[in-house]
Amino acid sequence: VVFVGDYVVRKNCLIYYLIHGRYNSEFMPSSMDNFKAYANYHGQRVGVLYWDTTGQEEFINIRVLSYANTEIIVLVFKLTDKTTFENLFNIWIPEINDNIKKSPVFILVGVDFEEWFRDPYNKNYVSQEEIDLVSKYSYIHKVVKCSYKTGQNMDKMNTFLLVDDFLRVKYPKVYAKLKIKKSRPKYEIDD
């Protein structure tokens, strides 16, 4: 799973929350971080590698290496910063398309939901209409608005659900045979 988006969206905080179940304001990323998390997916232990790509231009040569065989790409933007949303379509998706070898599952994730929720009609924020419009693109398989600070809607964004989304989109016949469980998986991390 590769997380892409501008530096200011704090993809590292989103990944930290996914793995540890809590926010850590002190966590500082390096130029490229990766973590392995495990989830119990219908009785099978499934490992997922999370790549936190840097949003800084000077690391483009390193960043594009992470796209080649990626199965899931999480496009991250700040709900409270329209520029980060626009950059997904003007910078990040074109860069991915130029460097990808196969068709991944795309998940659109808007962070800072706690701030956006208080004033969703702020003209500087990404509007619900804009989110609805892009979610209709065939390559966007899921949209999640969440907060890694407060935990709001983070239950819609975890390792179990990422694996679930991948199977649902890429292997629908296998997915249809599975009995979907609603319990939250237990995580382990390998550094």
| Number of distinct helices | 7
Basic shape: globular
Mean pLDDT: 80
Radius of gyration equals: 16 Å
Low-confidence stretches: 181-191
What series of H and E elements makes up the topology?
EHEEHEHEHHEHHE
The strands making up the biggest β-sheet line up spatially as 6-5-4-1-3-2-7
Counting DSSP E segments of at least 2 residues, the number of strands comes to: 7
Strand content: 15-25%
Largest sheet: 7 strands, mixed
Portion in helices: 25-40%
Q: Which structural class do you get from the secondary structure elements?
A: alpha/beta
Straight-line N-to-C gap: 16 Å
Task: Write a concise keyword list for the protein shown above.
7 helices; 191 residues; alpha/beta
Characterize the structure shown.
The chain has 191 residues and is α/β, with parallel strands linked by helices. The chain is built from seven helices and seven strands, in the order βαββαβαβααβααβ.
Short account of what is shown:
34% of the residues lie in helices and 24% in strands.
Write the layout of secondary structure elements.
Elements: E1 2-4, H1 11-20, E2 32-41, E3 44-53, H2 60-63, E4 72-78, H3 82-99, E5 105-111, H4 113-118, H5 128-135, E6 140-145, H6 159-170, H7 172-177, E7 189-190
Parallel strand pairs: 1-3, 1-4, 4-5, 5-6
Antiparallel strand pairs: 2-3, 2-7
